Amino acid sequence: MKPRLRALSGIKPTGTPHLGNYFGMVQPAIALQDTHDAFYFVADYHALTTGRDPAMLRRTSLEITATFLALGLDPKRAVFFRQSDVPEVLELAWQLSCVTGVGLLMRAHAYKAALDKGEGGVLPSGTFFYPVLMAADILLYDSAVVPVGRDQVQHIEMAQDMAGHLNALYGDCLRRPEPLVQSEVPTIPGLDGQKMSKSYQNTIELFLPEKALRKVVKTIKTDGAALEDPKDPDADNVFALYKLVASPAEVEDMAARYRAGGFGYGHAKERLADALNAHLAAPRERYLSLLADPSTLEDILQDGARRARAIARDTLDRVRDRVGLPKLPR
Ligand code: TRP
């Protein structure tokens, strides 16, 4: 049997997971555990560049862990861990920074956006350094592919560059990763029709209780068409979300009702709420019972960290040897 390629990705714990995270990232990532050697981690070091709330960082880290498990991540096959439980990554980040020009980091989209806003001087230097830590995340585990959204591709390319620099200067010791952008994943519209994102405050939380879920679904923005008007399903946010959870026959049926007229957005929202609820009820129950048992979550994270760390220390020893540092103390 061909050995499986290692797929690695990090998830920043910056808020309670929502439908956009689920369809855009969590679901495709979990699917990869069937075909790849899957490594996923909660990027809590990265979250420190913007977060200032320790209680929230702890809580959202556990929420993300519970979300992956509730939705089917198998912690026996996949390795799921918390970034900060493997602090070796900070050392590799240092090694990479020593062979990476400031010019490379100055090309990062996030840094340029801060400059454009006139905020270059007050940007935390950790934010400037963010791509180095992310490269270390990827390279530390010999990752072959990195499943990410399009907005993260530049970061992967920077990781390729950094690995290339170190390899060129000291001889091959880091594996070159490739981004894996899942093109079939659609953009998930939020309540206002823009891309669903915490920064637009237009999200639908993944594991809302049924009543609260029905309530937010009612607030999805639609055009002003009257009940009797024919409607274009492909121009509507309710329909776009429905497509993600309903069966093909249900989707066909709803599209036909839109086009025929006499079917209002209120009806559509009710069907969407039903479909979302049917899809999420069982994972929601698993999620709530996982969150109620933080010590089991912690055990899973520690087991993941132990497996991740063994690989991390091997990689770091290889790099240490190349650059002239002693082996890690055992
Ligand atoms: N920067 C990524 C994001 O904001 C999170 C992340 C951190 C990551 N380290 C990573 C993703 C390593 C992939 C690989 O979404």
Task: Give the helices and strands, then pairings.
Layout (H helix, E strand, L loop, with lengths): L5 E6 L7 H13 L5 E6 L1 H4 L6 H17 L8 E4 L5 H10 L4 H5 L2 H8 L8 H16 L4 E3 L5 H18 L7 E3 L29 H8 L19 H9 L2 H13 L4 H27 L2 H30 L7
Parallel strand pairs: 1-2, 2-3, 4-5
Helix pairs in contact: 3-12, 4-7, 4-13, 7-8, 9-12, 10-12
Walk me through the structure.
The chain is mostly helical and 330 residues long. The chain folds into two domains: 6-187 and 293-323, 3-Layer(aba) Sandwich (Rossmann fold), CATH 3.40.50; 207-288, Tyrosyl-Transfer RNA Synthetase (Orthogonal Bundle), CATH 1.10.240.10. Helix content is 54%, strand content 7%. It has helices at 19-31, 44-47, 54-70, 88-97, 102-106, 109-116, 125-140, 153-170, 210-217, 237-245, 248-260, 265-291, 294-323; strands spanning 6-11, 37-42, 79-82, 145-147, 178-180. Strands 1-2-3 form a three-stranded parallel β-sheet. The protein is elongated and about 75 Å long. 36% of the residues are buried. Bound molecules: tryptophan. Tryptophan (TRP) binds next to strand 1 and helix 7.
What is the compact description of this entry?
Helices cover 54% and strands 7% of the residues.
What are the key terms here?
elongated, two-stranded parallel sheet, mainly alpha, 330 residues, 7% strand, 2 domains, 54% helix, Rossmann fold
Q: What do we call the CATH topology of the largest domain?
A: Rossmann fold
Estimated radius of gyration = 22 Å
The strands making up the biggest β-sheet line up spatially as: 1-2-3
Task: Please tell me the overall pLDDT.
Answer: 94
> What would CATH call the architecture of the largest domain?
3-Layer(aba) Sandwich
| Strand runs, count | 5
The total of helices stands at 13
Low-confidence stretches: none
Q: What would CATH call the class of the largest domain?
A: Alpha Beta
Taking the alpha carbons of the first and last residues, their distance comes to: 34 Å
Structural domain tally? 2
